[in-house]
Specification:
Layout lengths: L1 H20 L1 H15 L9 H10 L6 H9 L11 H16 L3 H4 L2 H13 L6 E2 L1 H11 L7 H11 L7 E2 H11 L5
Antiparallel strand pairs: 1-2
Helix pairs in contact: 8-9
Length: 183
């Protein structure tokens, strides 16, 4: 009986993993993030909207640096990032964080991931619990935050060592899978 339960857990984990690697689901998730950041629902993300979204996540980026980066992706006749511009920015960030040998050796992508991990690891114990993940999802206004059972399923989908929480290695692995740009 225990073997059957373990096989079902393995199948469940595999299907969750497959869903994360699906390019169409990655695009759908990127659209959801875009829609969350586009507070006034005008189809554009302004530098101010992006800055506010990052602040809600505890990532206080320097506004002038953010503006310089984002402005380079905004079309001349537009006031903000359209979805395609946002996707291009996302792809560039993904390549700089996870692409090629150059990005793995200078230390900064790892520290960026550690900073992102620390947003979720609110108590600083080196793990992301379901409760911590739920708090961040609530800050983002995501409906998944409503039910702890849903949040626990999210944890299980990336919890490689089955300890009920996400450590940095699991987080890094998840980010590499989720942020793979769709072709």
């Amino acid at each position: 009986m225990e073997q059957i339960i373990n096989e079902k857990k393995t199948l469940s984990r595999q299907s969750s993993s497959f869903r994360l690697r699906s390019p169409s689901l990655n695009a759908l998730r990127l659209h959801r993030v875009f829609d969350l950041f586009d507070k006034n629902k005008d189809g554009f993300i302004t530098v101010v909207e992006l800055s506010q979204a990052l602040s809600r996540l505890g990532l206080d980026a320097d506004f002038s640096d953010l503006k310089t980066t984002v402005d380079s992706y905004i079309k001349p006749d537009k006031t903000g990032l359209r979805f395609d511009d946002f996707a291009a920015l996302h792809k560039t960030l993904d390549e700089s964080l996870f692409g090629g040998e150059e990005s793995c050796c200078d230390g900064s992508p790892e520290s960026d991931l550690e900073e992102a991990f620390n947003v979720f690891d609110e108590d600083g114990d080196g793990f992301i619990s379901a409760f911590e993940l739920q708090k961040v999802l609530k800050k983002l206004g995501l409906p998944e935050a409503g039910e702890i059972e849903q949040v626990e399923k999210m944890i299980v989908s990336v919890d490689i060592n089955h300890d009920g929480r996400v450590d940095f290695f699991e987080f890094k692995n998840m980010m590499q899978v989720v942020l793979v740009p769709s072709s």
